[in-house]
């Protein structure tokens, strides 16, 4: 490839990827599959690696991160990022309105209302349409330059479209969506880490990570709420919001212009319950005088503007009775106490349980079974107990005594010095730990055996067929067919899923082994550095801590895991079964162009291929796999158990529906 060809290819790929990014993150539309998107990005990164002179600061490859920042430079804000005055009282809002009216000498005015998101304030500087700097709020006057990390947030444009000002600053709120936060905590608990307390603090910590590649994997988002600069061509806050939308920024569609304070109060009431349905935590409403000229006339106090105020919703809480405390045993043996509550309605959902985290929390709250306790959601996604109603305590209730033995196997619990969590040390004989390790092993990010679930694992364990992940590869048709609810087809599907998992990449296998503190990212780092399992097994402590992101705790955990002869035996069994234990080079060579320009949606279960394999075959032959059925789609590749809705839609739109043999005939 010549330099001219490479430059053009990089430009074309960048344009395509930017388009797909915008469609997905701003318009909620998936025009191509995740796999195909990743392949395009991989191709761009490879080209930029070979032709670095054509890699630009606004390249979509910046989204995946990879830059290491040891120290964040302090940057002064062009205009201070002031905090707003807060109120929980609607009467105080009316007083605020009176001050505005007085300050404007009876001149007509209107308000602009928007939800107050519980995230981390960011300042984004653009020059000639390119993002050049991303800075935290800091103390309001100075913040940290975290540009490399900001570039990984896919809803923040790296290059603007339309008629953009030569230079300006946009401000917004970075946040971690609720579903991402919940998944992150599940993954942390899965590898033996303490879950994070709340999404806001997790977002703040994420933005200060040194490795921008790790930031990218946290899938942060950002809503923009203001812009400032010279010659912007806007006269009001509403105008600036519309300009941000036109330039391609992600703006929450929850704002409203209000003619007077009564409409403001209605907006507040409308969102009090509705905000719980949003994908992130909100804690109030921001009310601003809409006109910039009027804002300037009203001015500022020493700490905040006189033309804006934040109304904070009170954290919703309820009182209910603590019926019991149960104890859950995790895959790593970690014991989690759970409060069993009399059902109570809170923030639109019925709450029956709340995590108590550990023995320290129970002691801090001084809990007694039978107490009336206060439960709160507030800034937390998961309900928590915030206190006890001592005035309602029945005399004679005894303080909760934390269990000393595992509730599942009776083994005496241990508590590692410096840690708050108790552990069951019976790793090889405690049923929840055994089943938990197998559940971890088969999950999508690990061995991806999607034909098996928690219920199937439970039945296999109870029958004595499976006591470790390696036992899965010894299953026979006769054993699986015995399980309740299994027929010939489901039995074959399960065995096929297990067999297909032997092709899973080594880094996923390493994650699947369930080494404590070795999450998906750490497994990828170890696999990339050591190349195969034998090198990792024989690695010394010093060799391990020399790997990026591998600290003392992880290195010690890895050494302890492979020091156990039973774990080494398990790995030898997995090797013998054909599971990949070394990295393989991926060959992205195109086989043919027989499917050039053709688009496919793949749905259902297939005899000869997994869906990922089919995606790869389509791409190797010049076709594209997309996620949604539309009139522009060429083919619906239909397997067994395909959803009837997809078939009906394809028929209605006149899309060709083909079978697995039809597809094979096409590529031959």
UniProtKB/TrEMBL annotation:
Transmembrane segments: none
Residues annotated for Zn(2+) binding in this entry: 406, 409, 430
GO MF term set: DNA ligase (NAD+) activity; metal ion binding
Superkingdom of this protein's organism: Bacteria
Keywords for the protein's UniProt record, in alphabetical order: DNA damage, DNA repair, DNA replication, Ligase, Magnesium, Manganese, Metal-binding, NAD, Zinc
Cofactor(s), names only, from the UniProt record: Mg(2+); Mn(2+)
Catalytic activity of the protein: NAD(+) + (deoxyribonucleotide)n-3'-hydroxyl + 5'-phospho-(deoxyribonucleotide)m = (deoxyribonucleotide)n+m + AMP + beta-nicotinamide D-nucleotide
Active site residues according to the UniProt entry: 116 (n6-amp-lysine intermediate)
A GO BP entry: DNA repair
Record flagged with keyword Cell inner membrane: no
GO cellular component, one term: cytosol
Function summary: DNA ligase that catalyzes the formation of phosphodiester linkages between 5'-phosphoryl and 3'-hydroxyl groups in double-stranded DNA using NAD as a coenzyme and as the energy source for the reaction. It is essential for DNA replication and repair of damaged DNA.
Cited HAMAP family: DNA_ligase_A
Family statement drawn from the similarity comment of this UniProt entry: Belongs to the NAD-dependent DNA ligase family. LigA subfamily.
Protein name stated in the entry: DNA ligase
Originating species: Fulvivirga marina
Top-level taxonomy: Bacteria, Pseudomonadati, Bacteroidota, Cytophagia, Cytophagales
Gene from which this protein is expressed: ligA
